[in-house]
Design brief:
With 306 residues, the chain is of the alpha+beta class. The chain has helices at 16-27, 54-61, 81-89, 98-104, 107-116, 133-139, 164-175, 178-183, 238-251, 280-286, 290-302; strands spanning 4-8, 31-35, 41-45, 48-52, 67-70, 124-127, 145-149, 158-161, 185-189, 196-204, 207-215, 230-233, 255-263, 269-274. Strand 10 (196-204) and strand 11 (207-215) form a beta hairpin. Helix 1 packs across helix 11 (290-302).
Length: 306
């Protein structure tokens, strides 16, 4: 039996995760199509869930998908989540779940979920006005600190702050407008890059399918493959594997990229939980078929195997 998987994304077929997912599905005799959340709109007619827009007719001519994989990313407006919820209402498996995506898109909400599950993470303060910044710095032990936008992508919107002067410009940029002020900022204790290991672990279902060490480019404190950092395979330990699975479960994600920082003499800490993780660097570092692991899990869900 051939299944149809719909990937919700604004990126084209040449974008690495989308291209690899399509290749993996095709190799297994299944089909992946792309749904642009800005060109297919959910609605209701006589109480029934329907779709509108130019793409709706062609999309529905081939029938509804067997599973939906939202991968719209942190830089896409939250209004696009309505499309994912529409599929859920129609009884179609959505991986990840709407509620888990909504939670993981906001970094402080994510930390609250991790705290409830007793998953360790760096000391943090959430602020929604500039007045909260300097008390936060004091409570975190002073400079330097890290400022994060509550929803960021591939390391953007993350700043290391060493002084009040540097902070003021960032606060003005991010909390000066009413809309941004409502979103707020996350202030975290800075962990030095010296003696620190940055690890990305990919969780699919109830197991870890791969892990990599990320090395920041010279002069940058952010370890991110898309910012020019380097990566290599990470040899998993049972403790790191258990911690990563626990972090994904705390947020409710079936597919999750768990970012950890490990400093000498300290326990590993989760710094981010990603609901639509890229895996180009992970495939390059490990030689594993990560796209195939994701597709196989989605197919099991489509077949009702959980």
């Amino acid at each position: 039996m051939s299944y149809r998987i719909s990937v919700v994304s604004v990126m084209g077929r040449d974008y690495h995760p989308t291209r690899r997912l399509m290749e993996a599905a095709q190799q297994r005799g299944h089909v992946v199509d792309i749904l642009d959340p800005y060109r297919l709109w959910p609605g209701f007619r006589a109480g029934d869930a329907v779709f509108s827009g130019e793409e709706a007719a062609g999309f529905l001519d081939t029938g509804l998908p067997d599973a939906v994989l939202p991968r719209q990313g942190a830089d896409i407006g939250s209004s696009c989540l309505a499309l994912a919820y529409q599929f859920k209402l129609m009884g179609i498996p959505v991986i990840n779940d709407f509620d888990a995506i909504r939670l993981s898109r906001h970094q402080f909400y994510t930390l609250q979920a991790l705290s409830s599950a007793q998953v360790p993470f760096p000391d943090s303060v959430f602020i929604n006005s500039a007045d909260g910044f300097f008390p936060a710095v004091r409570d975190l032990g002073g400079y330097p600190v890290v400022i994060k936008q509550v929803s960021n992508r591939q390391g953007s919107g993350v700043f290391k702050v060493d002084s009040a002067d540097t902070a003021r410009s960032i606060l003005a940029e991010n909390l000066g407008e009413p809309q941004k002020e409502r979103q707020g900022l996350l202030i975290q204790r800075y962990l030095s890059t010296e003696g620190r290991s940055d690890v990305r672990v990919l969780v699919v279902g109830d197991r870890v399918v791969g892990a990599q060490v990320l090395v920041p480019r010279p002069g940058d404190f952010r370890a991110n493959f898309h910012l020019g950092g380097q990566s290599r395979q990470f040899e998993l330990t049972p403790a790191i594997e258990e911690l990563s699975i626990r972090a994904a479960r705390a947020v409710g994600l079936d597919i999750a990229g768990i970012d950890l920082m490990m400093a000498e003499g300290e326990m590993p800490r989760v710094v981010e939980v990603n609901y639509a993780p890229g895996f180009q660097g992970l495939e390059a570092a490990t030689g594993q078929d990560i796209a195939g692991e994701i597709v196989d899990y989605v197919l099991r869900r489509a077949a009702g195997q959980g």
